Amino acid sequence: MYETRQKILDRTHLPRWVAYWRHLEQRVVFTNGCFDLLHLGHVAYLEAAANLGDVLVVGLNSDASVRRLKGAPRPLQSQEARARILAALEFVEAVVIFEEDTPLDLIRQVRPHVLVKGGDYRPEEVVGADFVRSYGGEVVILPYLSGYSTTELIRKACGS
Fold it and tell me: What's the whole-model pTM score?
């Protein structure tokens, strides 16, 4: 029986999984975000990120960190709901919720082969990029799929 909750890892179990993936010589890809309303832009981005390696780990901002970053009334969905939705995507291997405003500690824990962000970022803005490059990892900026954003979806839903 398939259970999406099995793909939602806490920080204490993550090191064991990372060691297992590395033992299998799998290329670990990491990305992060709020993923408040999952839309086609997110799916295309996550799919492209997954195609850069063997294992895609998604760092998910907690409800508290989304509120600090985006303001009220965000997030629209709870961290549990957002994590389950992400975990249901076949190409997402693991989802890890983080409380901090940035995923730097999580990136240090995962030590990904590839760190990925979307095209709305410039390379110098990517948190953890210097760390990942310091051990020979890659930092990849994927193209932004225009016309898809959570903010735009909210605006349309509200009729503005």
Answer: 0.91
